[in-house]
Amino acid sequence: MRWRDGRRSENVEDRRGAGGGFGGGGLRLGGGGILVVVIGAWLLGVNPLDVLTALSGGGGTLEAPEPGAVAAPGAAPADEGADFVAVVLGDTEDTWSALFSQAGSRYTPPKLVLFSRVVRSACGTAQSAMGPFYCPPDQTVYIDLDFYRELRDRFGAPGDFAQAYVIAHEVGHHVQSLLGTSEQVRAAQQRGGEAQANALSVRLELQADCYAGVWAHHANRARQILEAGDVEEGLGAAAAIGDDRLQQQTQGQVVPESFTHGSSQQRVEWFSRGLETGSLESCDTFRS
Predict the structure, then answer these.
(1) Of the candidates 66, 132, 199, 268, which lies 20 to 30 Å from 286 by C-alpha distance?
(2) Do residues 146 and 116 lie in contact, with contact meaning Cβ atoms separated by under 8 Å?
(3) For 95-150, how does the pLDDT look when each residue is reduced to its tens digit (9 = 90+)?
């Protein structure tokens, strides 16, 4: 992926190295708990603590961080990993600003917080094992860069474009928030039962995948960011985090009615659709 000459976003806040931790072992989940929690981490608009409680069946314990565990915003990103994130976020800002402008609207970019181990957000206190997440109340994406090592080593999805896909997916949730989609879905989830809530969550997540593809389509047309193998990296990342593959890894069986993000095939299909068409209209997962 050609990214080094890209514009760096000014909306990145680096809170890494601020210290902090969880006493008594912190989060304790048995049987591949980290993978299970990663599933919950990709839910939109849900308090991370609620996700942890639900996915652990009440068996996990998340203790409050020590006083002063999360420091004030740190210095601007300086290492290569943080630099990459700033470029990708900047590219999403340019792409979505142009698309919103074409539609006669104005795009308000999200902030992105880099953290290590633990972070406080408007959605609650989260641990890095949860993976990246978007918090609607503060319109901020949170990511511990160690997740990329998990993506490569545990999920078998290496590559810089795979990493960019993760950011673009979370920014896709921000776009949903700006368009009012996420609020409508949450209201519908509250009116329905668990099965309907899960089905709506799947559609929301698949739309964020599609929006990630829309970003890549327009970014490549405008700035030629893609190199040979990049598309395969992105598709590999989308497949790696499908509900069916994660459930098979963590519990040895697949339970489709409990899906919250969609199968590997669905995630690949919707990311591909956005990448091929570059059209928001093609991302209407709620009518397909």
Answers:
(1) 132
(2) yes
(3) 999 999 999 999 999 999 999 989 999 999 988 877 899 999 999 999 999 988 88
